[in-house]
């Protein structure tokens, strides 16, 4: 009976910590930890395939969440280095666990606005509308011309889309070749 009580208390504490982690990150960033659907992941991978990335490309997922897209990217582009950047502690830990056996994936905890994305050949993101303008500014200041950027659902305003796929769920998946100006 005592063992059951200890396990129950541990489960409750872990659930509370996970919940607080998610609430904290939403309050800090304004972005909930949503995963891309399977069809959205397929669309992101397909658009990056169209982009003809270099063989040893550096692909960075801004706000990599629970790691589903990282796993798919690592498998689709085995010669690439896939990096996830996540601020929310609980999704970060889950992502680390999901990708620990993938040698071409690195998951870093932190704010992608201060994490350095200048080495990216491709960037993927599934963020919220309020972040798209600041992310656009970040990309203007840091990524090399010709870098590919794929967005899920929320688009960059005033940028030219190179290719798109209409998602079956939430919206459009769009490929930009940065700076994607008119």
UniProtKB/TrEMBL annotation:
Gene3D superfamilies: Vaccinia Virus protein VP39. It comes from the Bacteria. Residues 44-124 form the O-methyltransferase C-terminal domain. One of its GO terms (biological process) is methylation. GO terms for molecular function: O-methyltransferase activity; protein-lysine N-methyltransferase activity. Pfam families: Methyltransf_2 (PF00891). Keywords: Methyltransferase, S-adenosyl-L-methionine, Transferase. This is O-methyltransferase C-terminal domain-containing protein. It comes from Paraburkholderia fynbosensis.
